[in-house]
């Protein structure tokens, strides 16, 4: 992943470890904050995370895109399954 | 669907673009077929009594168009399937001259066409003889597809050959995509990080033709190095299972929904991107080169904190 973002093809192991550490801390902090927000509503939901990154446009757009793509794929898979059944009964 | 507004340095990887659109095409197409009711219609579409559909597989320089019979569970269409060889299939393309070159050349110029591809697949079987004759005319294929997008108007061609050429492009896209997929599985094994997974479902979404055209123009200019970097960028992802486990351990609640893990994986990946990019900026300021060192990452992290992109801890970390 780091190579994809601009590092060497073989990043230093200590760099990788540090990045992993930082990311885990980041996710932890985000999750805690999201939980704080979510506790007001009752339970934790995706909306809380989206609220947290609302200021960060690239992340927000990427997340909405991921979510809509997931929906699409789900729909398509469902449609495919339903039609396979139909096809099965036709046989 | 919103397009990505991302400030990462690397550009889109064309194979993944293609693969996404191919998957989308296939799913759309299948959805469309099955949404029509009459059996005759289906049979006519698929031109096969058992209502099988075709897919393409490539091994080395051999290209074959095969029938597929039956599908397992909810897996991705191009990837895992129960394969059935049909030796008598008329569309066997083993004789095609250097299909890889053709695929590469075509890929560089012709983007896939989501809405059109489905209809072409419909008229697949009747158009076989034409397709075979078109096998060698790759430039024609490129022109047709490129015509759809708009910018370069080259020779417009005969309508039926247009359809087959688009079909050709979709099929060849599948070829290269499958080839690229297998190639990347090995590539990923060399990755150092533990949380890597080839995530095929995360593609750019833009169905906007102008954006597609721009993307294709950029991608065609890529060097090998840039392409491999872009590929690594697109293919890498954090594992959802690990993320889910982490979230469960943090929140203490077992109910972590799938969209939530997806979103958090996406956010985390982009955060890694921000870190690495900023570290590179730091390195250029200090006029250093080579692999990124931890000091650069720490400086980058410090700058991100100042910018406010890192959530601050409300309770200070006392012991570290």
Automatic annotation (TrEMBL), chain A:
It is found in: Nucleus. GO terms for cellular component: nucleus. InterPro entries: Histone-fold (IPR009072), TFIID_TAF13 (IPR003195). The keyword Transcription applies. GO terms for biological process: transcription by RNA polymerase II. Pfam families: TFIID-18kDa. Its main location: nucleus. The keyword Transcription regulation applies. It comes from the Eukaryota. One of its GO terms (molecular function) is protein heterodimerization activity. CDD domains: HFD_TAF13 (cd07978). Keywords: Nucleus, Transcription, Transcription regulation. Coiled coil: none annotated. Belongs to the TAF13 family. This is Transcription initiation factor TFIID subunit 13.
UniProtKB/TrEMBL annotation, chain B:
The keyword Nucleus applies. GO terms for cellular component: transcription factor TFIID complex. Residues 78-100 have a biased composition (Basic and acidic residues). Its main location: nucleus. It holds the Pfam family TAFII28. Residues 78-167 are annotated as: Disordered. GO terms for molecular function: protein heterodimerization activity; RNA polymerase II general transcription initiation factor activity. Residues 122-136 have a biased composition (Polar residues). Residues 218-303 form the TAFII28-like protein domain. The keyword Transcription applies. Keywords: Activator, Nucleus, Transcription, Transcription regulation. It is found in: Nucleus. One of its GO terms (biological process) is RNA polymerase II preinitiation complex assembly. InterPro entries: Histone-fold, TAF11-like, TAFII28_dom. Residues 156-167 have a biased composition (Low complexity). TAFs are components of the transcription factor IID (TFIID) complex that is essential for mediating regulation of RNA polymerase transcription. PANTHER family: TRANSCRIPTION INITIATION FACTOR TFIID SUBUNIT 11, TRANSCRIPTION INITIATION FACTOR TFIID SUBUNIT 11-RELATED. Belongs to the TAF11 family. This is TAFII28-like protein domain-containing protein.
């Amino acid at each position: 992943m780091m190579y994809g973002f601009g590092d060497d093809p073989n990043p230093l192991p200590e760099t990788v470890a540090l990045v992993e550490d930082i990311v885990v801390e980041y996710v932890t902090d985000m999750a805690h904050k999201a939980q704080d927000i979510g506790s007001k509503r009752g339970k934790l939901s995706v909306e809380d995370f989206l609220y947290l990154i609302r200021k960060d446009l690239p992340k927000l757009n990427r997340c909405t895109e991921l979510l809509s793509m997931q929906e699409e794929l789900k729909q398509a898979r469902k449609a495919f399954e339903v039609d396979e059944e139909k096809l099965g009964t036709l046989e | 669907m919103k397009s990505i507004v991302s400030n990462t340095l690397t550009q889109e990887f064309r194979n993944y673009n293609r693969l996404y659109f191919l998957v989308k095409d296939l799913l759309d197409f299948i959805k469309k077929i099955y949404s029509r009711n009459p059996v005759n219609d289906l049979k006519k579409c698929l031109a096969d009594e058992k209502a099988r559909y075709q897919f393409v597989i490539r091994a080395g320089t051999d290209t074959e168009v095969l029938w597929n019979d039956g599908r397992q569970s909810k897996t991705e269409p191009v990837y895992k399937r129960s394969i059935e060889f049909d030796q008598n299939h008329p569309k066997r393309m083993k004789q095609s001259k250097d299909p890889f070159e053709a695929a590469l050349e075509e890929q560089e110029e012709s983007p896939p066409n989501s809405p059109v591809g489905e209809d072409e697949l419909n008229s697949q079987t009747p158009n076989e003889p034409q397709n075979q004759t078109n096998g060698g005319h790759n430039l024609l294929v490129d022109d047709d597809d490129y015509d759809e997008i708009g910018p370069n108007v080259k020779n417009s061609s005969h309508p039926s050959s247009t359809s087959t050429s688009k079909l050709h492009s979709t099929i060849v896209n599948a070829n290269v995509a499958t080839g690229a997929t297998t190639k990347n599985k090995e590539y990923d094994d060399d990755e150092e990080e533990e949380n890597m997974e080839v995530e095929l479902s995360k593609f750019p979404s833009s169905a906007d033709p102008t954006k597609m055209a721009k993307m294709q123009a950029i991608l065609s200019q890529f060097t090998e190095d840039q392409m491999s970097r872009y590929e690594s960028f697109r293919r890498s992802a954090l594992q959802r299972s690990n993320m889910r486990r982490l979230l469960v351990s943090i929140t203490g609640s077992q109910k972590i929904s799938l969209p939530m893990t997806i979103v958090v994986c996406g956010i985390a990946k982009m955060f890694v991107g921000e870190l690495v990019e900023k570290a590179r900026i730091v390195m250029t300021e200090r006029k250093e080169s080579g692999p990124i060192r931890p000091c650069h990452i720490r400086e980058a992290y410090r700058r991100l904190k100042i910018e406010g992109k890192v959530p601050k801890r409300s309770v200070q970390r006392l012991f570290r």
